From TrEMBL:
Residues 93-240 form the Peptidase M20 dimerisation domain. This is M20/M25/M40 family metallo-hydrolase. The keyword Ribosomal protein does not apply. PANTHER family: BETA-ALA-HIS DIPEPTIDASE (PTHR43270), SUCCINYL-DIAMINOPIMELATE DESUCCINYLASE (PTHR43270:SF12). It comes from Kitasatospora cathayae. InterPro entries: Cyt/Met_Dipeptidase, Peptidase_M20, Peptidase_M20_dimer. Keywords: Hydrolase, Metal-binding, Protease.
Length: 371
């Protein structure tokens, strides 16, 4: 979908611009919800705005050292979105993340590929062989003893997913099992950076002495990041996967580890939030989905508030193209999500409504097949 022309940030009902969806839409959603009340909102609010998500996030550490500032009965984190435009959605699952720098050394220094090529092992080729062991031919991660979580929420449509991801026609999706499980519950791996051989423009006929790959490992929501890194390190440093006996070193990437998140949808706040969503999106059905990415701050807030309702909602549906170009946010979606949050605040402030919903939630738990 083409973006708006320069100087024209609005086109076809969408506002275009870097950060328009992630995370400015969440800020506007929160502020808009407050403006719907002619007097003070019916609940006590704490508003936290973060501006360092992509520049060395320090808020997570601040929460850890100042937990009392972040206590709340219900937490609304406006950093996700509906699985599809106009479809009310709660994100109830986030994968965690660990990253490792995998370095392979085979030579004291680079040497001429014509004079020494053949019997002399190239470090980059050795690195390729090593990384090839992390996935099986189907594309599943085979590092042992990593959690594999089954997904029971909304199942993504494969064709829509291919279109949203920009997968080339004829290229197969990788991994086995349901698409939702592959996206939200199973580990996945990819290389996000390389160092070693020169770029194509600077290529010369020589063997690489040292090569490093930065490996990103997405992990199941309840997986321990430290455990996952230890398993990845032990696997990659196992001599059985090192056919040329190259020197292999696996180091953690500082600040990269992040825990996943699993919401407790039986909390009373979820029933109120679902009711609020349905008021903003009449004739629709609320669904639960997951996100393959990680938001470590959410896990930290959950740890500070173990008995509270944590709601991940927002305006960042697939057409927003967050972290890409052209990024945008749908105005109608922004309006409806603002309305949903307004209803939520109203319901939370209405003790009678809250009591009724809590009673319904408790009654449903006592009935097989209840919500």
């Amino acid at each position: 979908m083409p973006g708006a022309a320069p100087g024209q940030p609005v086109k076809d009902g969408r506002v275009y611009g870097r950060g328009s969806a992630d995370d400015k839409s969440g800020i506007i959603m929160n502020l808009g919800a407050l403006r719907t009340f002619t007097t003070m909102p019916p609940v006590h609010l704490k508003i936290v705005l973060e501006g360092e998500e992509e520049a060395g996030d320090s808020l997570e550490e601040y929460v850890r050292h100042n937990p009392d500032l972040f206590k709340a009965d219900v937490l609304v984190i406006a950093d996700t979105g509906n699985y599809e435009l106009g479809k009310p959605t709660f994100t109830t699952s986030l994968r965690g993340l660990v990253a490792a720098d995998v370095t392979v050394r085979t030579l004291n220094s680079p040497v001429h590929s014509g004079e020494y090529g053949g019997p002399t092992p190239d470090a980059f080729m050795a690195l390729i062989h090593l990384l090839n062991q992390v996935q099986n031919p189907a594309g599943d991660v085979v590092v042992p003893d990593l959690l594999q979580a089954a997904w029971q929420g909304h199942e993504p449509d494969e064709q829509k997913f291919r279109e949203q991801a920009g997968v080339k026609a004829g290229v197969h999706l990788i991994g086995t099992g349901l698409l939702g499980s592959r996206l939200f519950g199973k580990p996945s791996v990819n290389v996000v950076g390389l160092d070693g051989p020169p770029t194509i423009d600077g290529s010369i006929n020589q063997l690489t002495a040292t090569a490093t790959a930065r490996v990103s490992l997405r992990i199941a929501p309840l997986e321990d990041p430290q455990h996952a890194f230890s398993q990845l390190k032990a696997y990659l440093e196992d001599p059985a996967f090192n056919p040329w006996n190259a020197e292999v070193q696996v180091n953690p990437v500082e600040g990269s580890a992040g825990s996943g998140f699993q919401a407790d949808t039986t909390k009373p706040g979820y029933a109120l939030a679902e009711m609020a969503m349905l008021h903003a999106y009449p004739c629709e059905q609320v669904v639960f989905t997951g996100a393959g990415g990680s938001i470590p701050l959410v896990t930290q807030l959950q740890q500070v508030n173990p008995d509270s309702t944590v709601l991940l909602i927002g305006c960042e549906e697939a057409l927003c193209r967050i972290h890409s170009f052209p990024e945008s946010v749908d105005i109608t979606e922004l309006h409806k999500m603002t309305l949903a949050e307004s209803y939520l605040l109203m319901f939370l402030g209405d003790r009678k409504t809250t009591a009724e919903v809590e009673a319904m939630a408790m009654a449903s738990k006592a009935v097989p097949g209840g919500m």
